[in-house]
Amino acid sequence: MAKSALLKSSIAKKYWMAFTGLFLCLFLAGHLAGNLQLLVPNNALNFNKYALFMTTNPAVKILSYVTYLSILFHAVDGFLLTYQNIKARPVGYAKSNPSANSSFSSRNMAVLGTLILVFIVTHMVNFWAKMHFDQNIPLQTITVEVMGQKQELYLMTNDGYMATSQVAKTKEEAAKSGAQVYIKNRTEFYNTQADVKVGEGYKDLYKITVAFFKDPKYGLIATILYVVAMGVLAFHLLHGFQSAFQSIGLNSSTWIPKIKLFGKLFAIIVPILFAIIPVYIHFILK
Amino acid sequence: MSSAKNININLKIWRQKNAKAKGSMETYKLDNVSTASSFLEMLDQLNEQLINDKKEPVAFDHDCREGICGMCSLYINGRAHGPDTGTTTCQLHMRKFNDGDTIFIEPWRSKAFPVVKDLVVDRSAFDRIQQAGGFVSVNTSGRTMDANAIPIPKEDADKSFMAAACIGCGACVATCKNGSAMLFVGAKVSQYALLPQGKVEATQRVLNMVRQMDEEGFGNCTNTGACEVECPKGISLENIARMNREYLKASLK
Amino acid sequence: MKLDSKIPEGHISKKWTDYKDHLKLVAPNNRPKIDIIVVGTGLAGASAAASLGEMGYNVKAFCYQDSPRRAHSIAAQGGINAAKNYQNDGDSIYRLFYDTIKGGDYRAREANVHRLAEVSGNIIDQCVAQGVPFAREYGGLLDNRSFGGTQVQRTFYAAGQTGQQLLLGAYSALSRQIGLGRVKMFNRHEMLDLVKVDGKARGIIARNLVTGELERHSAHAVVIATGGYGNVYFLSTNAMGSNVTAGWKIHKKGALFANPCFVQIHPTCIPVHGVNQSKLTLMSESLRNSGRIWVPKKKEDAEAIREGKLKPTQLAEEDRDYFLERRYPAFGNLVPRDVASRAAKERCDAGHGIEANDTNEGVYLDFSTEIQNKGRQAAYAKGNHNPSAAEVTKLGKQWLEEKYGNLFTMYQKITDENPYETPMKIYPAVHYTMGGVWVDYNLQSTIPGCFVAGEANFSDHGANRLGASALMQGLADGYFVLPYTVSNYLADEIRTGKISTESQEFIDAENNVKNTIDKFLNNNGTKSVDHFHKRLGLIMWNKVGMARNEQGLKQAIEEIAALKEEFYKDVRVPGSSDELNPELEKALRVADFIDLGQLMAMDALQRNESCGGHFREEYQDSEGETLRDDENFSFVSAWEYMGYDISKEILNKEELKYEFIKIAARNYK
Lengths: 286, 253, 669
Description:
Chain B: Its cofactor is [2Fe-2S] cluster; [3Fe-4S] cluster. In chain A, about 65% of the residues lie in helices and about 10% in strands. Chain A is α+β, with helices and mostly antiparallel strands. In chain A, a hairpin with a 3-residue loop joins strand 5 and strand 6 (about 190). By secondary structure, chain B is an alpha+beta fold. In chain B, strand 3 (about 75) and strand 4 (about 80) form a beta hairpin. Chains in contact: A-B, B-C. At the B-C interface, helix 1, helix 2 and helix 3 of B face helix 2, helix 4, helix 5, helix 11 and helix 12 of C.
């Protein structure tokens, strides 16, 4: 009884929404902390280092899988809830005045959530997928002046450098051009003759990000949509944060005002900080 | 009461012959309604007019007309029990309306509360939830212990009372955008959970009542808080949280 | 008819215990073979159904509402009495017994009342065990307050919603039995006739109010717990659906109807606002603990107030007549209900009424003195021994709000006036009916197998009920009396077997009901049911109300008889019989109210004395107090139905013997 109830009952669904939702709030905070590095001038390397850490550290990996699962659960559970809730009122009211008794966000969590899901998918296509699967992902380079000549160098994870002119994109290309090094597995530098790994580059997520929001054709639209999405997130959080505490049964007259206040601040500050980044990149960053 | 005056109003009322028939909103004009009348007295007046015109009067539920039996319902101008807060329809007075107003009157809308006729709905789902566990399993012999044998902190007793003040009218379900009954069930679970007498069966009670609630086809709570605002007895959302807590405890046992 | 009250022998304090010990029992294995019908699910009905179901009988329970939880017991505000003596103020079973007999103006049965007082403590134990959240003190123990007509604090309460909490307690016990399958519940069903087979109650005809279907239900015993008949007056504090139909139907089948003229008019209700008023709202008697009742001393002032030229708060202290404190210094504003009501009527009749309606009927219930007193106390309690006037007022209002907040809010919603600032307007209204179906000590009517409990019977309150005693009686009957006495009756029924609903008696009864319904629906009259009900109410209020006299009663009897003829000829009942038809329901109920109204007038006419709620203008002393006639009227009047013409009913008398209480004049001065 008890076990199946924890999966199927209406209250259990609330728990799942609450726990996954709260975990995603934690994720948001972490994600934000990482993203804010984009606002620091000349910080591309650190940002990319951070990105590398986030994609390779085993602990972080586990966390990220939990995040994916949470998103999935949160969304599926949300859809189920919404479907059942619509079914619970087959005939609607001719006249209804819900604004008299509840907030906009609380009544529109499903719509807001769906929009956020759409955003997450596009966001992942734009960044996460590139990071993970793009065969031609740019690697971090720096430009140095050597004897009055500008030279572009790859930065390597072992803190070494490698001139870009010496590196071919593929083995075949290297064979043709006679380059000493070619790139294998998206990030690894291989010696063409010996065919041994000589180092590894940083995926240049910074570059991807900046390019995305500075794109002459779509950059402005992307920035606007991103800001709008953060607005949607704010409304979702405005209800969702404190609602989660109610769902797991934390509601006492001493704690709930504090939780509500924190929830409000979280719901406003986090999305604003997220939104500042593309605006900064698009309009301010040179 | 000396400030009472008469107003003329238009009514848009849901008419439905029986549970199977298709219903529709019908329009009526009613003149000379005293603002000192209660909302249901206004409907009495309408019915008197309809009977005199040899038409079918409007069926609506009502009984005590003093805000305690929970029999009256009605979704008035888009709100359960009308525009006044902390009030049942029977205690809503016409002074809340103005001359020339159009008033929408609809039955509670919920899958678990099917329409019986016009504005009358079937709320027996609430009874079945209560039957599933809303009690203390004590025999009615009177041979229990003395009433003062277990002191109960005043604060707990008061909280329990405030939960028990629920009149089972169903406004929470009607007003919830999800048609959820959690305020009703939460209040019942809380009443007992707060008292030592109720704690003995707390685990089974919350599991059984929630199971029955789900079987009845009520929607899920999304914490919009609309129920708390529209509840004529001001039952607090805290009760839903307490039920959630109790359920979690019970599920993990 | 010879009336046998079956009061057991022995000393009053031993009667019930000894009697119980010798009642016949039904063995557990036989109980499932026996069916019991309980009509009504208020305190008495719900507790009886729950108890009988728990014992193992097959119980069928009926209520006209959509849920048993809505029965009108739920509206009781003030509290429930019990002789617990938790407050150490000298209370005892005997004192509760004595207060109740005296409060009832020596027209109640000693043995029944003593039994009530005996089980009163158990009721509280039972309710607490069931999770009824009574008010408590900071030490965690139960709180008490005092009520009209007593000098001890024995009233247990749950804010202003005691009836609700007790009913929900009984409802939870009933729900438990329904869930266990031992009670089958029929919501939205109304009993429309009793079926008798070989002289015994064997079942009922009930109408499913949703489908209109007439159903036959058989049983080995039938319990009627359908409440009082205050709605004879149209305007009362009863619920709109409260009716006497079940009681009247059994009366027509041979149960005697006792003391119909004993009606309680509650002193503190909100006055009538106009012709469309559908019911009256009670302001709990507990308010009389804190409020002072007054009218203007001068008629001119009263008139100026009615015309809106003067505000009550502007009237100087010496221009106010605190008439209860003046007439009854010992009990003051806490005299019993009948006394308080009559005093208010006397003042209004003399031209001092303050309500601006057709009748000017209204007096003030003023909290300003209490605000000052409690405000000062609260200030002192906070260590402020020299509070400002504003501070005192503020603290006093806070105290009031804590104590009576819900009542004050309700008053404000209904009247649009703020009782913290201006005195409440109140006036007496019909509230409770002490009369009812005659029952013996077993709560059995004169029809074998037909038991009557709660307000529907007549037995415990005599000519006037004390506050907080109705809840006590309902639960006592249901939890602690019927389970014993019904079993005693059923002990002889274990061989009867299932009772068929195909017998001629069931067929006849059903056809009877069907014919009545068809007649109403095909009547094609011109006036609504409410039209007749309101007219009946006016006759009753004016001539069989708070003050009665021979001439008025005679007129009332004739007027009601004429109204009856007109009703059957000219009532219009729309709709059909096979659907939810509230107008039809009302028509069937009003038909019975009309009959009963006439009987009430007849009963009041024969009772040539004033006692309790029954006040005959001819029988009062020079100060307007009641003059009881114990020599000639120390009896229960029990009326026997003799057919369509109510004036033909026969009066039977059950002598009241007071063995343990010395009869005295009721004095609250």
